[in-house]
Amino acid sequence: MKEFELIKHYFSNQPVKRKDVAVGIGDDCAVIKPIANQHIVVTTDTLVEGVHFPINTDARAIGHKAVAVNLSDLAAMGAKPSWISLAITLPSINEAWVAEFCAGVFELCEFFNVELIGGDTTQGPLSITITAQGLTPENQYLSRGGAKAGDWLYVTGELGDAALALQYLQGNISVEEHYVAPLIERLNYPKPRVLAGEIIREYASAAIDLSDGLISDLGHICQASNVGANVVLDALPLSEKLTNSLLEEDAINIATTGGDDYELLFTVSEANKVGVETALSHAGIHVTCIGQLNATQTITTTLNNKAVPINSSGFEHFS
Fold first, then answer.
1. Span 114-136, mean pLDDT?
2. Which of 102, 169, 229, 296 lies in the 20 to 30 Å Cα band around 220?
3. In this prediction, what percent of the chain has a pLDDT beyond 90?
4. Is beta strand 80-90 parallel, antiparallel or unpaired with respect to 115-123?
5. Cα–Cα distance for residue pair 312/88, rounded to 1 Å
6. Bridge partners of 268?
């Protein structure tokens, strides 16, 4: 099978056909119809074998994660996902692998009504680049730069399980057998918090998705908003799998620096605190208040009401 046969057989055959796509896969460019009173939000992420996912990761999981990490970025801006483009580099054409990869891609696309509108296929070491586009009402998007001193700091879901899974797969730690499958599921199949992003758009002052680690990503909000923060480590939402597998200090460290959570970290003013908690609760979305912003322009952490030092580094390419 050659390149254009591959595209026609696997990538053109998808479950989502949006009315706002005038021209999709098969031409030199895709054509999207303008949407009145909407901003288009655009993000691009690349996944490289051995860097963003372990070698021999299941193809379906790679496809899912490639889409999920991009939709997570859109969620952090409060955007509704709409379209993606896919550039994939393959060492060779393994039809069974491609079929499973597409299943992972299109399963998530169908759930969020996202259409694959184009891309590129080349031969080389395995890597996947996706550009995702979403919509927000005009001038109603979130950014990293709107937080103020006094705002409260929230996070969705639980932290640290994906990083724990990676440490397990790398042979650095052991975990109880019944934890293995759900931990690897958490690493390979992150759930982008799209609904949460659309809800908090009405309340939050700033937001970011957690890809590189809580403290590192919080630093991006603090820098963009010119604020500091104190994180209450006692309040971190840690799973039983994490707390039963590691000592408290190690569990906290992996939850604050491990990365791959793809939860949303966001800030909310005192006036909007009750509103956002109520709205998210009604949607069945679990969130935790883990600290508060201040004017110091530094990040501090407390445990049992005492200041404690913590590793502030997260994942960074070329570090």
1. 94
2. 169
3. 80
4. parallel
5. 33
6. 152, 204
